[in-house]
Each structure stands twice: as structure tokens, then as C-alpha cells.
Amino acid sequence: MSIPRHLTYDLRHKVAIVVGGSRGIGRAISERLGREGAAVVVNYVSNDEAANNTVRTIAEREGKALAVKADISRIPDIQRLFDEAQTAFGEIDIVVANAATAIIKPFIEFTEDEYDQVFNVNAKGIFFIVQEAAKRLRNGGRIIVTSTGGVRMLIPGNALYLASKGTIEQLVRTVAQELGPRNITVNAILPGYTTDLLPERDRRVAAEASPFKRIGEPEDVADVALFLASNEARWITGQELGAGGGVF
Ligand SMILES: NC(=O)c1ccc[n+]([C@@H]2O[C@H](COP(=O)([O-])OP(=O)(O)OC[C@H]3O[C@@H](n4cnc5c(N)ncnc54)[C@H](OP(=O)(O)O)[C@@H]3O)[C@@H](O)[C@H]2O)c1
Questions:
Q1: Which of 29, 43, 124, 148 to mutate to test the pocket of ligand 1 (most atoms within 8 A of CB)?
Q2: pLDDT of 198
């Protein structure tokens, strides 16, 4: 069957969960998968308005989407997220584990509470999202984890954030081996400076570091996620794919 002209990769009949899919890069991924025909579950933790806006945008383009509020640092929430996704759209094909939180400050100032706050989402939360995906995904499914190019750039002040991201990259490499026999691929995307959250001065420095002389748009990263989610990426697994505009 040929792919209709308006689709780059055909995700019709696929069901995707985008964890942290309501804002920023996650929103762009939700919208991109939705535009390609996937039914998208947009997960978020607190900002109802952003999640509802994302769902509305997908629906306006005649896509299918549902917002599910669930805190991935809580295991029962993770199970409910997958239950609600399956009840709404059926068996799941694609899970994008994109949610994260960050605290940036000098290494010697981090407290135990801050460690728990960041690791509970970025490491524990993503670990159990990937585990639930491994239990429930259809054979031939896709798991995509958002890490960060920071793991290669090693910027001071990022010790806690990058330590948490390092754990999920190791997870990707290991789980890819276990899920290969089911033709499920497991990969990480490493975005560079991507959103306009950076102060103006930092944005200029970041843009200068790229041979393209700009920082990334969420859509630049979303297109990489779309590719990894597609059938065309079936031979790529256990990889960390840099999507940083040539900065690292
Ligand atoms: N932005 C960058 O320049 C950049 C660069 C490199 C890597 N990254 C990585 O790319 C990913 C997205 O970054 P971003 O800046 O686009 O994120 P963002 O705009 O801060 O959005 C974060 C998303 O995650 C959700 N979330 C946060 N904690 C959660 C939890 N406990 N349970 C469920 N959902 C939760 C948020 O929901 P609410 O809206 O409800 O809060 C939101 O949908 C992250 O993994 C980040 O580390 C970002």
C-alpha cells in the first residue's frame, strides 16, 4: 500500500504515548506523530491548559489525541497511564519517554531532596515507563527516550541533571538487547539547545556554536523522533542519536 502524499511516514493505525507530551519538545513530538496519523496519548503532570491545547491542535488537523495526567515518579500513575491509553485506542505501538526535570547549580550545593526530585522523574520514572512499555508494546514497537546533548558537552552546574540522563542512556543500550527478539527498537535522542527558554545571551552563544548558526526548534527534534518511530528506522536500536545542530 502506498503512503498518501501528505504523510512522510505512515503511522495510521499506530498508537503512541508521549510522556511529557504537552509542552516544548514533547508537544512537537505529539503533534508530529498525530499529523502522521497515529492516535496520540499526551501525558503531562500539572499543566492542564497546555495538555488540552496540544490535544486540540492535533484534533483540529483531524488527528486523534487524548490528554492523560499522570506523574511518572509514581508507579501506579504509570500503570493507569498505559491502562487509559489502551482503553481509548487499543494496543500500543510507540512510547516516547520525554518528560524530565532539571535543577542547575554548583555540584557541592545539591541536597538529598533535590537528588530525589530529579532522579524520581528522570531516572526512576523513565525506567518504569520503559519497563511498562516493554511489557505492553506490540511486537515491532518503538521506545524512544529523550536524553540530552549535555551528556557530551558536560556543562558545569549540570551534574545532577546529567547523572540522571546517563542512567537512561545505559538503560536504552541494555533494554534494546532484551527487546530485539520482539523487533522492538529502543533508542535515545540527544537534543542540543532547543527551546527559547534560554536567556538571550546564552541563546546567542549556543547559536554561534552551531554550524547552522541558530538554536534548535522543537520541530527539529520531533522529526528525528518521527523517523525513529517509523518502520524505516527498524534497523536502528540501542543508539544515542545526536540532534543538536552539529554542536556536539
Ligand atoms: N529544552 C531543551 O533545550 C532541551 C535540550 C536537551 C534535552 N532536552 C530534553 O528534552 C525533553 C523535553 O524538554 P523540554 O524543555 O521540551 O521540556 P518542558 O518544556 O519542560 O516540558 C516538560 C514536559 O514533561 C512533563 N513532565 C514533567 N514532569 C513530569 C512528571 N513527573 N510526570 C509526567 N510528566 C512530567 C511536563 O508536564 P507539565 O506541562 O504538566 O509540567 C511537560 O509536558 C526533556 O527530557 C529534556 O531533558 C531539552
A1: 148
A2: 73
